[in-house]
Design a protein that fits this description.
This protein has about 350 residues and is of the alpha+beta class. The chain has 3 domains: about 90 residues, Sandwich (Immunoglobulin-like); about 100 residues, no CATH class; about 100 residues, no CATH class. The chain has a 5-stranded antiparallel sheet with strand order 3-2-5-6-8. It has a 3-stranded mixed sheet with strand order 4-1-7, covered by helices on one side.
């Protein structure tokens, strides 16, 4: 075992303290913790390393070393020391933390900011101000000031709730009823409590009726929009049908086959009129027409025989046009005029 002069000195001190019925504690440290201030039972014992005589019993050893203006490292240990004994304590310092002085300065500044907000009417700050005076953080403890700030906060909340209640807020109305029942922020008053409760019930019923009516209006508006869309679609379809009917009426002819026959003859003449040695156009038309009397007679006969059927078709077209207009209850509408070829204000002609 290696024997050092420091250990020998510690043993000598131990025996000396034992002779005088005392106890000794050696405080040791290393590296950057050297020079830390050591306190035993809140009495300065010296800078680490240090040997100190202590009375038997419980001892609280504290050490601190400042690392900056606002931060320090600390150590604390509680231990029991017997009569005439010697003990060794090695300091293991904490990570840097804010000093008590710096913390007090910070708390004072924070308290001043909170009090300023409270004085400006901030309800939350009023509650915090009451807590500050209860705990003494940043201000001197003052139970009277704490009660005053709580009263002011509750009074401010009451005024805000009263304003909301008078504006028709059901929750605030019930809140005022509770206040008058319990005497929170106001004097107890069962009559006013009942009045606010009744107003809350009435307003809630009115709000529910207003919501019901709003929902009914929304449903009706949706129904009307759907009806308008359906009507517009029917009108579009009717307009297209009327336009088709109008074109059919314009194109209708009792002698359509005969007209088509002569139109074809005319086109043939025009196609052949430039051939060398052809006679004049009128001569060709006469020759083609008279040269095929059988075909001409057949065409005229066909149109004559089909006249009753064409008459029936014409009546059907006019009747459909009249029925469409009548079905829409708009005989003077654009659809009816398009279907019957009428001018505005004129009734449809009978079929």
């Amino acid at each position: 075992m290696r024997f050092s002069p420091g250990l020998a000195l510690f043993m000598v001190l131990t025996m000396s303290f034992s002779a005088h019925a005392g106890s000794v504690v050696r405080i040791v440290c290393e590296d950057e913790d050297l020079g830390s201030e050591v306190f035993i039972n809140d009495r300065f014992a010296g800078e680490c390393p240090v040997d100190a005589q202590v009375a038997a019993g419980t001892a609280v050893i504290r050490a601190r070393k400042r690392v900056s203006q606002e931060y320090e490292k600390v150590f604390e240990k509680r231990m029991r020391i017997g009569e005439g004994t010697a003990q060794r304590v090695e300091l293991v310092m904490s990570e840097p933390r804010m000093t008590a002085e710096a913390k007090a300065v910070k708390e004072t500044a924070a308290a001043a900011a909170i009090l300023k907000q409270a004085e400006a009417g901030d309800v939350a700050a009023m509650g915090k101000a009451a807590e500050l005076y209860d705990s003494g953080r940043g201000v001197a403890k003052d139970p009277v000031a704490a009660s005053m700030w709580r009263f002011k906060a509750e009074k401010t909340r009451m005024r805000a709730e009263l304003s909301a209640a008078e504006a028709g807020d059901v929750k605030a109305m019930n809140g005022m009823a509770d206040r008058y029942e319990q005497g929170v922020g106001v004097d107890k008053d069962p009559v006013l409590a009942g009045a606010w409760r009744q107003r809350a019930v009435l307003k809630q019923k009115q709000d529910e009726e207003a919501r019901r009516q709003a929902q009914a209006r929304a449903v009706e508006a949706k129904r009307q929009a759907a009806a308008r869309a359906e009507a517009e679609e029917r009108e579009r379809a009717a307009r297209e049908a009327a336009e088709s009917n109008r074109r059919k009426l314009e194109e209708f002819s009792f002698f359509r086959t005969t007209k088509d026959f002569f139109k074809g003859v005319n086109e043939k003449v025009i196609q052949n009129k430039t051939a060398p040695g052809d006679p004049p156009l009128a001569s060709n038309l006469t020759t083609l027409t008279l040269g095929g009397p059988g075909a001409t007679v057949l065409v005229l006969f066909s149109d004559t025989v089909g006249a009753p059927s064409a008459t029936t078709e014409l009546i059907k077209l006019k009747r459909e046009a009249a029925l469409r207009a009548a079905a829409w209850a708009k005989p003077d509408s654009m659809i009816a005029k398009a279907a019957g070829g009428q001018k505005a204000g004129q009734p449809l002609s009978a079929p």
